[in-house]
Give the backbone structure.
Amino acid sequence: MTDAVDTSAGERRRPPVRVVRVVGTGLVGASVALALRRLDDDALLPDPSPTALALSRDLGAGRVVDGGTEPDLEVVAAKPDVVADVVLAELAARPREVVTDVASVKAAPLRRLSDAGADLRRYVGGHPLAGRERSGAVAARADLFEGRPSDVVPTAARMRAAVELGRAVATALGARVSTMTAAEHDDAVAVVSHVPQVAASLVASRLREVPDRAVELAGQGVRDVTRIAASDPALWTQILSGNAAAVARVLHAVRADLDAVVTAVDALAAEAPGAPADGARAAVAGLVAAGNEGRARIPGKHGAAPTRYVPVPVLVPDRPGELARLLHDVGAAGVNLEDLHLEHSQGRPHAVAEIAVLPAAAAGLVRALVARGWTVHA
Amino acid sequence: MTDAVDTSAGERRRPPVRVVRVVGTGLVGASVALALRRLDDDALLPDPSPTALALSRDLGAGRVVDGGTEPDLEVVAAKPDVVADVVLAELAARPREVVTDVASVKAAPLRRLSDAGADLRRYVGGHPLAGRERSGAVAARADLFEGRPSDVVPTAARMRAAVELGRAVATALGARVSTMTAAEHDDAVAVVSHVPQVAASLVASRLREVPDRAVELAGQGVRDVTRIAASDPALWTQILSGNAAAVARVLHAVRADLDAVVTAVDALAAEAPGAPADGARAAVAGLVAAGNEGRARIPGKHGAAPTRYVPVPVLVPDRPGELARLLHDVGAAGVNLEDLHLEHSQGRPHAVAEIAVLPAAAAGLVRALVARGWTVHA
């Protein structure tokens, strides 16, 4: 694994900063500090909470600021509802420093900074997408942003050098960096992150009041749809509040589509024999087809164009080592596993592993696995 | 793998029927026939489509009916919109046979059979949950129902023997059988299957019109929420039409919750400094918290009560054999993997494997993996 980290580290440039001050030592702040420490940056870690501060210092995420060193760049890792105030204070306190942040909403904090007369030439927004449901410094990892998308949000035309600093730090975290405006960022995350969270919560809420025997029928579909419904209500209230305008636009569009489906399904429920509900089936089919189209736009691995991988389903006994034996046999067949989906359901002591491979590799893999005694159906 | 099938087959009872006639050789029909053949049942396979019939015979799913053998039980594997007509015809044509079906909706076909004066003492509904997005006999597998939930839906008080036949066949398929009424079944699948499909399609639809750079930010959350949005529009139109009344009830509840969120987010978007939107944050937090509660009801593996497994995240280089090496090391540590979630994102040549284990096993596993050189953060 050390090899792997070194290999990918070859793609990283050391950021053109010597000392980075990280303010806020929750999951994201502590992970940023850990990642920069790995590159020998001297991360300083003031945090309003003495407990969190001591904890993240113990975790190796930096040394406590001692007042003697002036940072080149400051990363404010505060929650969306307070980030603008912290950035404002830090810009005012250190008149030469460039300040960036990591909040998952960008337009509202920027508006607040602008209204307060902050020096926007020295501010560049950032949003490394971490994608964990857990929080706190204990969950921090130096590799939290490896291979994740990350945005750098330029705020004013004159601060090209600040944008370059922000990009360099994001690249140093191992993230894949793209640059967009605050409005573009907030519109994008409303669609690909914030509204999916609302939808998952809406579906999961319906599971509260059904009988046990109904939830016992839950298969992989509802499990996938509701996985992120386990996320933190307090944090998501901040995120949805912080991006309310963009989220509202998308939710209104979702509600219009839902209204059309409800109208169609109501008509189908009221349908009398011999008097089919006009257009209702077309409305339902249209929604599912539109979903096909949208789903197909999600990019494949490594930023490649979406690929239709072929799933190769294999029955795996639920005993230690069986899945390893299967994947060893996949590797021995010279096939690269593009994705792996392990499907459990109730009542049986084994699972189905769906191994996704490139279409050209599927037939050979099936032959190789069958030859080694696996039950494969593809 | 043969061992595994034999082990679990030990839990199956051979059904008290000698000849099963399977009508319809799509994914489900051909898989039922394959599963019963494995138990030496003599499955007969008439199908209206000569091509599908020849294909499934070539796949070993039974012999073509020759008119000389009288079946004890008939499984009608037709799509939801025609299943009642086929069952009706088969009940009339063979006055001693018990007929079951596999359609994913139960109340509407039953109503139609009842209205047409069918002999309901010889009909028992069934619904083995297959959970595949693909279709057709080519995708059929004898183990399609292994460990899946399956319902048997009794239709009349006097047909206890027929219900027992249905249960016995479902058990023979390897499924975990529960018994409920048609209305209970349809209410349950509306919540755990049909409405999640609608929600996934609604979210995925929104991805159609956003810029490429927005979909490039897609992380694991939206991928999970929209996975089933890739499903077949024609089949889902039949399913949603066939269960319109129950789906409509759940969709109305979802729309009421969505209306509340839209009102709250609209208020937050319009919020002026110093004039916070009353109750809007509580409404948003309430939805996410309700989602937490619903999500927590989904049962764990093997029908056990929901367990909070501990995720152990490990960085895995994207090369053939690396995941196998990791899982070999997990097995060598004597730890049973409860679930595995492989997380890809764009732009980096490795993935994060989140290995879910029982809480008591986590600390030992982390020590063992770190000792073998893996990068683990737990």
